[in-house]
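Recap quiz, item 2
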Amino acid sequence: MGEWVQARYGRAFRTAVMICGNRSDAEEAVQDAFLRVWRFRDALPADAKRDAWLYRVLVNACYSKLRQEVPRRERERARLDLAAATHAEPVASTESPERAAELSAIAQALDATLRDLPETLRVVVVLRYYSGLSEREIATAIRRRPGTVKSRLHEARRRLAADARLTAFGPDAEVTTS
Amino acid sequence: MIDESVLEELLAEIAGDIAIPADGPEHVLDALAVATKPRGDSRSRFSKPMLSAAAAIIVLGLVLVPLLHGSSSRVSSKSSAAAPSVNLSPPGTVTHGVAAPPGLGASNASPGSARSVAGGSTAYAAPAPTAPTTPTAPATPAAPADSAKIVKTGTLDLQVPHASLRTNVGRVTATAVGFGGYVAQSQTSYGGTNPTAQVTIRVPVAAFETAIAHLDALPGVTVLNDSENGSDVTGQYIDLQAQLAAATGERDALLVVLSHAQSIADILAVRDRETAAQTEVDQLQGKINALSDQASFSSLALTLSEKPVRTTKAVVRKPKAETGLAKSWSDARSGFANAVEWLIARSGGALIILLAALALLFGVRYLYPIVRRGLV
């Protein structure tokens, strides 16, 4: 169990941060998720689906955190703190400095755009394009049909592409395709 | 539309900027360790000696209590049989073997005192004398220890003189209060032909028998039925106390663990278990309190009813059969009434026929000429 936790903690934590929008909620959500997975370990499916189950629990924990009666002002402040902490240090990259700078700028814009997405869309984007879950696994995680996941992903990508903060980089930014 | 691979790359970029807490996995593993800690650890440390002691006490109690009860009842019955002169009162009256004033009969009203109801007179045998009546009889049974928990209950059906129910309910209440008890429940019905009252009083267990004797001795009261029941709950009480001690120990241990908890997960996990242990402590304490209350105050359910009053039967005089002119007049009245009833009963149908005839007449008189004019 220890190795399993060690191997998955990082990705789960970052997923939770991107869903919750602040570190403290994410940390608690991840702990809750791992505890819950351990509690129901006997009922867990096979290894292949265990990760999907973990993300299902994690998403639920994040939803719980998001719906708690936390004052909006505090949440906004936590987001600002997170953004400042996230982008304070330069990104270490093997690519050229120009490309790295451009990528970093686009990433910042995407981050801001992502935060403005509704949580139903943000969750599927994070689970699909960061956590690497398949559409079926996401459907399991959020308890919706795969078709719903597909349509949400489509809608999220459409909104991201239409956002002015990303389109400002232009077609050369290789963000969009025709 | 954003390209999926680019989106993945950008999200990886964003995620890469999110620093993972270095002690995050350790916190999770600590929380898991707390959660995996067997629940019985702290309990076993505290509960084993307690449970052993409790088991020993229960075994001793199970062996000794029947012996004590058996010997006391034997002595009481023997003493009452061997010394019938204890009942010095004249027949028909209720004598108290224990002439203690209200509230002072605790030492005399031992559970071993025997009671017999015969021929409408109730006699309470005194507790066994200090000297054995026979060589084979055992010595005076020791009074129950202070820790002994005896739950006594009883029922008493009393018949009171006519129109004295209210007075006697008041006397019952006064008796309960006089013995240091109280009225737990009272329901009285003064109306109707059979006024009754159901009163449940609770008196200190030591004054239980004395209170019953006092109630039986109320003036004009007849005992229709009575029953008493006593059960020793000492073992159950000790068992509950042992469980309480174990649960308290577990709760205290969890409080110590809680005070050393570092992470939120630790605190939450230990807090859950501490809450469960506290709930168990509260429940056990509640049971102990309830048992102590039952053992401290005996419950006596009384039913009071008034003596029925003898009533004379009302003589119903049969009317004399009519003859002659009176009979003819009566028949004529009856016939007239029957005819009127018949007319009224049929008038509904006749009214319908009358209305239909009127409608037909109206049609022939007014509508037919109009129709004919139209046709022409």
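The first helix of chain A runs from residue 2 to 20.
Residues 87-93 of chain A have pLDDT under 50 and may be disordered.
End of item.
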